[in-house]
Amino acid sequence: MTSDPFGRRAGKSLRARLARLRDDIRDLTTNSPSRFAVGIFVTLILIFTGLYSLPAAAADGQRTPFADALFTAVSTICVTGLSTVDMYSHWSPLGHLITYIGVNVGALGVLTLASILGLVISKRLGLRAKLIAAGDSNPMRVHGGPVNEGQTVRLGEVGQLLVTVALSTLVIEAGLVVLLYPSLVLAGVDPLTALWEAPYYAAMSFTNTGFVPNAGGLTPFGDDYFLLTVLMTGVFLGSIGFPVIFALWRHQWHVRRWSLHAKLTLITTTALFVIGAGVFVLLEYDNPATFGSMDAWDTTFQAFFLSAMTRSGGFSVIDIGDLHGSSLVVGSMLMFVGGGSASTAGGIKVTTLAILALAVVAEAKGRQSVEVFGRRVPSDVQRVALSVVAWGATIVALSTIAVAQITKAPVEDVLFDVISGFATVGLSTGLTAELPDPAVYVMALTMFMGRVGTVTLAAAVAATNRSQLYSLPVERPIVG
């Protein structure tokens, strides 16, 4: 037998190239994990755009226009729930399966997903990768600097956190399926059809997406309080965030042992849920198109349901376009806040609002530091909270101006849908389905920036941090 030196040489060359590619990816995951995270989401969106463009994915067997395929891919991966097509009638069973898989992948979260893939690629979690995984529970991890370990998950617990992410998603969605299936069957859904609709509704509630698998959506179940309560429970569990689920799993009802992050998330989420429902009752009780035709119990329940869904759930029983303008403003405010950090919800996050509110109270009382539950919140966390709000407001303002200029639609409708996209909520006044292609691209970019997160996006674009070894003279401008 004769040897083949050229074949061996080609094989070595290929292995060398693969090794270099592996090293490059490993360097990217450790040296710039935020850019790697953004790259992962962009890649997923492109893949799912291609999948949605397949003729087999559409019910009519025709290729879906690129703008609609791209928008649906962004909405799916970013677990938003907005759509430019009828999600039930436009897609084939394959298209619905693609949506179901996409929302579960996107629900893992940009930072957690990047950490898991980085672990698969490098076979281990390096220090920087652990920092970015821990960053899911504290955005300051992205920026470096001293962070109180008591406020977040310690590096040694990151592996447990990632396991919690996967297990909680599987267990919670399975539990929701068990509760939803008999309710759907009792509501008249065919038992075989319910075998598909129950997992679909479970995924859409826990991921806070809001797509529906049937033609009428939730309208046929408008008076099924058990089913709607199960959906609200799924939305709540998805919106509080994996770090909070992790803390509750570890410490259960030992409230004193909960992290500050968990306490602020649960308290602020509950407060906004109750306040939002109360405001909706006051504003809509005399609106015949929404709550005006309901009795007191129905009005109260539907107000709570609407309050929960504006936090990022995306389901709706009433037509959002029928709400008063004042209710649309309140809904926009709730959507802008969103849910918890490292959750399937979007928005600026409830902890951001809590930190800013505590800072305002501390300033009003003349305190030099922000203190809560026996802990002091460092100033760098307050600066990040302020930055998140500023960036979020800027993105929403620019997108609203662009879409309003393109569509010439009423500003209140545009603002509501833009914030719904930015906060990955999925509620719409009906405007999104009628957007021209240029506005579709603007909304898709808004959804992407809202889901990836303003802090992560800024960190991905910025250059590597450099230490400044000097300090400039202090001068105080007049503020206020």
TrEMBL record:
Signal peptide: none annotated. The chain crosses the membrane at residues 36-54, 97-121, 161-181, 225-249, 261-283, 333-361, 381-402, 439-463. It is a multi-pass membrane protein. The keyword Amino-acid biosynthesis does not apply. It is found in: Cell membrane. This is Potassium transporter Trk. It comes from Microbacterium terricola. Pfam families: TrkH. The keyword Transmembrane applies. Keywords: Cell membrane, Ion transport, Membrane, Transmembrane, Transmembrane helix, Transport.
